[in-house]
Amino acid sequence: MKIYGYINRFLTAAAMPALLLGAAACQDEIENPIPDYTLSDVPTTIAVKLDIPGLTPVSRADLSEQQLNQVNSVWIRTYSSTTGEATSDWVQIKADHKDTHITHPDTPVTLESRSGYSYIVAVANVENLGVTMGDDGNVSEERPISELLKNADTWDQFRAISVASPVTNEEIYKG
Question: SS3 of 80, please?
Answer without folding.
Answer: strand
